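Action item from last meeting closed. Structure (329 res):
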């Protein structure tokens, strides 16, 4: 981790805004998001589909699909600000300092290249003139991520491997150059619970080995509770609550976080039906006035529809954007 600068977080995102121009006006997919991740720590980012989790990650990677763009904010890796509009500069950064594991390895991996070739390509891109060492580095990484018989699997194609093995290959590609920051976007979604646990353990092992920061995106609160040191809850392109994982699961302050946690099944708890959050995440061009969650919130009062609450510290670094934070219905 030569790139880590003492005194700087591994990843710092400040006041990030991502917009997409439409005929109805600028659509704000991410609206003023800020967070930091220290080296060796994992930030879990949770929320329903449409909350802005993946677009935030793509903005960090400089991969927001056109015509979207980062319209405001600062993104820094170990104190170095990224110019995400500069493709040449981001090509040097991606893989070397920040990498991303995408949620579906079968579509993220190239079906006509062997897995070894794909890991070697990622390594060789940042080590020009060292092609002979790429194979050795790739075999070492395959072994690190728990691929049995790495020499034989080096020559395998993605379709010849199971879903769990393909996800391990994706992790190997992402870690080929030992980046300072790893972004994992729903890396366990399509896997059964046994393989999910193995992937979570693997990510913890490689984090300890390399000392990297992890941004772990998921809608699965159970998975996040296993891997995250800190948690940020996103809703309608905003962070509505952020705290240490223990605090947020034991003492959620925002009604949206409370509702998400209430939907998680509990061993030994027998209920006729799990609670559900009424409605859906609003379209960014059709947000309710005031708090974006006000139309779905069981505790909304008139003030909630008059102004959007700021993300405020409610003690010990536990942030929540709610006028009635901590109250229970």
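Sequence:
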């Amino acid at each position: 981790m030569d790139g880590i600068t003492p005194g700087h977080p591994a990843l710092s995102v400040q006041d990030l805004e991502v917009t997409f121009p439409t005929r109805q006006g600028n659509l704000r997919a991410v609206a003023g998001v800020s967070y930091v991740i220290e080296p060796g720590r994992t930030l879990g980012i949770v929320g329903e589909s449409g909350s802005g989790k993946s677009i935030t990650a793509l903005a960090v990677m400089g991969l927001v699909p056109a015509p979207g763009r980062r319209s405001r904010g600062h993104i820094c890796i170990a104190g170095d600000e990224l110019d995400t509009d500069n493709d040449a500069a981001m090509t040097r950064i991606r893989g070397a300092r920040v990498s991303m594991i995408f949620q579906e390895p079968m579509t993220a991996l190239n079906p006509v290249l062997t897995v070894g070739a794909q890991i070697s390509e990622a390594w060789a891109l940042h080590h020009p003139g060292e092609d002979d060492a790429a194979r050795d580095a790739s075999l070492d990484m395959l072994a690190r991520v728990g691929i049995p018989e790495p020499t034989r699997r080096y020559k395998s194609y993605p379709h010849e491997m199971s879903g769990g093995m393909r996800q391990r290959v994706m992790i190997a590609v992402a870690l080929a150059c030992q980046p300072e920051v790893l972004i994992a976007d729903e890396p366990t979604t399509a896997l059964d619970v046994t393989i999910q646990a193995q992937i979570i353990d693997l990510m913890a092992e490689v984090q300890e080995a390399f000392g990297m920061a992890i941004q772990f995106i998921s809608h699965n609160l159970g998975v996040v509770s296993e891997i995250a040191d800190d948690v940020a809850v996103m809703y309608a392109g905003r962070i509505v609550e952020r705290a240490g994982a223990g605090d947020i699961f034991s003492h959620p302050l925002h009604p949206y976080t409370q509702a998400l946690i209430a939907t998680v099944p509990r061993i030994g708890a027998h209920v006729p039906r799990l609670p559900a959050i009424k409605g859906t995440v609003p379209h960014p061009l059709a947000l309710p006035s005031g708090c974006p969650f006000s139309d779905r919130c069981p505790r909304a009062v008139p003030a909630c529809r008059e102004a959007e609450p700021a993300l405020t510290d409610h003690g010990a670094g536990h942030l929540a954007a709610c006028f009635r934070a901590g109250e229970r219905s």
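Note appended to the action item: The two ends are 47 Å apart (CA to CA).
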